[in-house]
Amino acid sequence: MPLTTLVPKANVVPTHCDGPDDAGWTPPLDADGLKYVLERITAWKPLDVGAIFDDLDTAIGNQSPPVATTVPLVERLRGHLASLSDIAVADPKFPPTDVMVQLIERGRPMRKEHIRADRKQTIGLARRLAFVLSDLVEELIEARYIKDDE
Predict the structure, then answer these.
(1) C-alpha angle 54-40-133 in degrees, rounded to nearest 5
(2) Among 1, 51, 64, 70, which is most buried by a count of CB atoms within 10 Å?
C-alpha cells in the first residue's frame, strides 16, 4: 500500500483550537488540587469483598479473634464500613434504601468509638461492627451496588 493512501486529502486539524493559549480557558485545578487528586488516586484500593467476608468470619465466626489481631481487625472493619457507606450514598441517581441509611447511621458512632484496653470490650466492638457491616454488605449486594465475590 503506498504511503499517500494514509495521508488525508483535507486538513483535519482545525486552524484554531481552544487550549491553554486561549484567553478564555482556565485549568480546572491548580497545582495543589492536582496533587490532591494524584494522592487520592495512588492511595485508592479497590473494594475486596472477599477480604470483607474474611474479616466478618474472623469477628463473628466460631472462635474469638486472636489477641494480637483484635485491634487491627477493628480498624479493618471500620475501613470496610466506611467504604461501603460511601458506596451506598455515592450516586444520587440511585439513593440508598431506608435499610442502608439505618445501617450507615447505626455504624457511624462505632466507627469513631474509642478502642478500650479490655480485650473483651474490643472484641465486643469488633462484633458489633461486624454485624452492621454484614447487614450492609448483604443489602448492597442485593441492591446490586456491589458484586458478590463468588
Answers:
(1) 30
(2) 70
Q: Which of 67, 70, 49 is nearest to 133 (CA)?
A: 49
DSSP code, position 96 = P
Q: Over the stretch 84-130, which tens digit does the pLDDT of each residue have? A: 999 999 999 999 999 999 999 999 999 999 998 888 999 999 999 99
> Cβ of 11: how many Cβ atoms within 10 Å?
7
Task: Please give the Cα distance from 99 to 106 (Å, whole number).
Answer: 10
Which residue, among 50, 57, 86, has the nearest Cα to 73 in the 3D structure? 57
| Entry pTM | 0.73
pLDDT value at position 24? 74
Q: State the Cα–Cα distance between residues 20 and 106, nearest whole angstrom.
A: 49
CA dist 65 and 150 (Å) reads 24
